[in-house]
Each structure stands twice: as structure tokens, then as C-alpha cells.
């Protein structure tokens, strides 16, 4: 049967060193996964279980682009993150088998309307307006999992050449394997599912004209230029 309008192009991520594309099905995000970041936000880490929220694939933006300052906010913040892209099913998966479901790894920016997040928190409401908006998931190219293994690699973000966020992946409260295992008790995870694993301390506002460059040792970088608001 014909569609009533042309369906949108699928959301995809580039693969390092080639022309292949990784199709994105869902984006899971992890909150408060670095203790120092939780502290700077005035929160404590709940070590009994990870905390999640989601972004739609429509939130994806390509690395290296100039992206307009987000509408509806006066406090748009950067959050640098380690990203995993799954390539195999995971349901009720044990942590020691979880990494076998990963297709590739990358770097990403969780761009956040912090003022809207604060307002939602104050009223006990969801964070959707703060977290899931156009250009709020800026993701770099993926490196195949066979070529890289997560450990204690450095993760950092520079804004206009100044380092704002700087940590190592082994300081995450919940490891990637633990996150996949936990999520797999609530979802039938599979190929196309992306997990943004949380941000270290040092988050802060951006302004039009700012240049953001994020790096994780051994992975393709992620970058964006903040443009004028539309």
C-alpha cells in the first residue's frame, strides 16, 4: 500500500574508514553515571540501579556540522559521552556476555536544555523537552568493536580549545557491560540500539560561535559548531 507521504530517511551513523552506515533504531541514555557529575548537579548516585532516559532517532545530528542554538532555552549545555552501538540481540543477558552484542563504539554529545531540565525536576516531571530535541544527539563515526575494547581510556571535551570535561571511562559508576545487562531485563535490545553511557563532570553552557571537540582515546572524534538560533 502507498504511504500517505514519503517516509523520512532512516537515521544513520557513519562507520570509520568507509562508506557503510549504521542504522539507528533507538537511543538509550544513562543519567548520573559519573559520581563527580552527579555531585556537580546536586544529586547523589543511586548505586542500586542505573537511571535511564531516551532520545528519538530524530534527535541525531552529524558530527562536524554547524547546529543552530536550540530553541526554547537560554541555557543549552554540552555533555560529552561514550557511545556503544549494538549489533546483536540482548535479552536478560549476563554482564559477562553483554559486550559480545556490541557492533561498534563512538563518541557523542548529549546536548541539554538545562533550564528546562531544572524546571522539570522541580515539578517531578519527565525530562523530554530538555533532552529529546532536534540536534540533541551529536554522534561521531563508529569504530567496529573488533578494533577497540573499552577500558580506562581518556574521555574529554574541548570548547574553543579549552578542556571542559576530562575523565577516564573506568570511572563510570556502571560499566557498559552492566548497563547492557540491566537494560536487557526491560527491553529486547538488538541491532540498531545505541547507548549513550553518561557524562563526566564539567558540563556547561554553550554560546553561538563556540566550537566543541570531543575525544575518547582510540575512537573517532565528535565535533560541532554552535550556530545562531533560528
Note the topology.
Elements: E1 12-14, E2 21-23, E3 26-31, H1 35-40, E4 51-55, E5 60-62, E6 66-68, E7 76-78, E8 80-86, H2 95-98, E9 102-110, E10 112-113, H3 114-123, H4 128-131, E11 137-139, E12 143-144, E13 154-159, E14 162-168, H5 176-183, E15 193-196, E16 204-205, E17 211-216, E18 222-227
Parallel strand pairs: 3-15, 5-11, 6-18
Antiparallel strand pairs: 1-2, 3-4, 7-10, 7-16, 8-9, 8-15, 9-11, 9-12, 13-14, 13-17, 17-18
Question: Any overview of this molecule?
Answer:
This protein is α+β, with helices and mostly antiparallel strands and 230 residues long. The chain has one domain (12-227): Fumarylacetoacetase-like, C-terminal domain (Fumarylacetoacetate hydrolase, domain 2), CATH 3.90.850. It has 5 helices and 18 strands. It has helices spanning 35-40, 95-98, 114-123, 128-131, 176-183; strands at residues 12-14, 21-23, 26-31, 51-55, 60-62, 66-68, 76-78, 80-86, 102-110, 112-113, 137-139, 143-144, 154-159, 162-168, 193-196, 204-205, 211-216, 222-227. Strands 3, 4, 5, 8, 9, 11, 12 and 15 form an 8-stranded mixed beta sheet that branches. It has a 5-stranded mixed beta sheet with strand order 6-18-17-13-14, with no helix packed on it. A hairpin with a 6-residue loop joins strand 1 (12-14) and strand 2. The mean pLDDT is 96.
Amino acid at each position: 500500500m502507498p504511504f500517505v507521504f514519503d517516509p523520512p530517511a532512516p537515521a544513520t551513523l557513519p562507520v570509520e574508514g568507509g562508506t557503510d552506515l549504521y542504522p539507528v533504531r533507538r537511543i538509550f541514555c544513562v543519567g548520573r553515571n559519573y559520581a563527580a557529575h552527579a555531585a556537580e548537579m546536586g544529586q547523589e548516585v543511586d548505586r542500586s540501579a542505573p537511571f535511564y532516559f531516551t532520545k528519538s532517532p530524530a534527535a541525531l545530528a552529524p558530527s562536524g556540522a554547524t547546529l543552530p542554538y536550540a530553541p526554547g532555552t537560554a541555557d543549552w549545555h554540552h555533555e560529552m559521552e561514550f557511545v556503544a552501538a549494538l549489533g546483536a540481540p540482548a535479552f536478560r543477558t549476563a554482564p559477562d556476555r553483554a559486550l559480545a552484542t556490541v557492533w561498534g563504539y563512538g563518541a557523542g554529545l548529549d546536548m541539554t536544555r538545562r533550564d528546562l531540565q531544572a524546571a522539570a525536576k522541580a515539578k517531578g516531571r519527565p525530562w523530554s523537552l530538555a533532552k529529546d530535541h532536534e540536534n540533541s544527539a551529536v554522534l561521531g563515526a563508529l569504530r567496529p568493536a573488533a578494533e577497540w575494547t573499552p577500558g580506562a581510556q581518556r574521555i574529554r571535551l574541548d570548547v574553543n580549545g579549552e578542556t571542559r570535561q576530562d575523565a577516564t571511562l573506568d570511572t563510570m559508576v556502571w560499566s557498559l557491560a552492566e548497563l547492557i545487562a540491566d537494560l536487557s531485563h526491560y527491553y529486547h535490545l538488538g541491532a540498531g540500539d545505541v547507548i549513550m553511557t553518561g557524562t563526566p563532570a564539567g558540563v556547561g553552557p554553550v554560546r553561538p560561535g563556540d566550537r566543541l571537540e570531543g575525544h575518547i582515546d582510540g575512537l573517532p572524534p565528535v565535533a560541532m559548531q554552535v550556530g545562531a538560533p533560528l
